[in-house]
Amino acid sequence: MDLKSFKETIEKSSTIVIFSHVNPDGDTLGSMCALYRTIKNHFGKEPVMVTVGKIPDIYHFLPYVSEIKKPDALDLSQVFDLAIAVDIAAKDRMAAALSLFENAKIKMNIDHHKTNNNYGDINFVRADASCAGEVLLDIFENLSLLPDKDTATALYTAVLTDTGCFRFENTKADTLKKAAKLIEYGADPAYIARCCYESKPRPMVLLQANSIINAKFIEDNKIAYVCIKNSDMEKFGAQNDHTEGIVEALRQIDTTEVSFVLKEVDENTTKVSLRSKTADVSKAAAVFGGGGHTFAAGCTIRKPINIACEKLIDEVKRILV
Ligand SMILES: [Mn+2]
């Protein structure tokens, strides 16, 4: 990986747009805000940030998050000199913003998903990194683009959330060393943890409780899953991003090997999140055109939720070890 090309490409680009993936999480948002801040701070340029889908309330504390635009606020025919995708496993995860990426003169791809196929002209894709934020921190430090407090806060959020508070398999010695460095650069770990984990809206917690009560357990309780219908969402006044965390809660059960949550989008579309302790759930997600990591993956199934559920159960049984 030629890190110099990161600096050179930004230097020669006057218009820059940064993308996070659809229905953004802490890694894609934290990485995007950190990149925005660094480009502004060290290069004196003002990139445009774009995301599709709701920014979860818990991430509103991130520096510069209010600068993020929705595609409908932008001229989608605009040709940027440089487009940078962060934490985006596949191009279609840019959803309605994809044409802006495709139209750009130079496309850069910064990611850590093992399924990423290097779709950029310039690719910084490292499957060994815990999160996209870690890939960015390495780039910044190597090029002496040192993080300030805001950049450190955004990058620490990326590391914290993508490692599940330093609990998942992607937590390495190096990950903790980087988190420590980010604290030295000014990130406040207690404050960031409080924002990310102790600021949940009440409908989110009630929906989670209801989902756990209604969960189903099959294959000797090795598979735990729940179907969340729009009527469940309405009952608690929950918003789409309020399903986050349910699939992890089901995995917390001692007997669970694989957990998944199916969420009704409309009568013919179902969104799926999968987690596991041992099995490779990215294989089950790939059957439906999705992807992700070994222990955390997702996909969208173009079927009504009940049928999607049956099909997914078949695939998950296949990957059980
Ligand atoms: Mn990530």
Summary?
The chain has 321 residues and is of the alpha/beta class. It has 12 helices and 11 strands.
Please characterize this protein's 3D structure.
The protein is an alpha/beta fold. The chain folds into 2 domains: 4-197, inorganic pyrophosphatase (n-terminal core) (Alpha-Beta Complex); 202-319, Diaminopimelate Epimerase, Chain A, domain 1 (Roll). It is built from 12 helices and 11 strands. It has helices at 4-12, 26-43, 98-103, 132-142, 149-162, 173-184, 189-197, 202-213, 230-236, 246-251, 281-287, 305-319; strands spanning 16-19, 48-50, 82-86, 106-111, 122-125, 216-218, 223-228, 258-266, 269-276, 291-292, 296-301. Manganese (II) ion binds next to loops.
Describe the protein's topology.
Blueprint: H1 4-12, E1 16-19, H2 26-43, E2 48-50, E3 82-86, H3 98-103, E4 106-111, E5 122-125, H4 132-142, H5 149-162, H6 173-184, H7 189-197, H8 202-213, E6 216-218, E7 223-228, H9 230-236, H10 246-251, E8 258-266, E9 269-276, H11 281-287, E10 291-292, E11 296-301, H12 305-319
Parallel strand pairs: 1-2, 1-3, 3-4, 4-5, 7-8
Antiparallel strand pairs: 6-7, 8-9, 9-11, 10-11
The structure holds manganese (II) ion.
Manganese (II) ion binds next to loops.
Percent strand: 15-25%
Largest sheet: 6 strands, mixed
Low-confidence stretches: none
Name of the top-level CATH class of the largest domain: Alpha Beta
CATH architecture of the largest domain: Alpha-Beta Complex
* Radius of gyration computed on alpha carbons: 19 Å
Distance between the termini: 35 Å
Shape: globular
| Mean model confidence by pLDDT | 96
Order of helices and strands: HEHEEHEEHHHHHEEHHEEHEEH
Number of continuous helical runs = 12
Q: CATH homologous superfamily of the largest domain - what is it?
A: inorganic pyrophosphatase (n-terminal core)
Helical residues, percent:
25-40%
CATH topology annotation of the largest domain:
inorganic pyrophosphatase (n-terminal core)
Structural class: alpha/beta
What is the number of beta strands? 11
What hetero molecules are in the model?
manganese (II) ion
For the biggest β-sheet, the strand order reads 6-7-8-9-11-10
Number of domains: 2
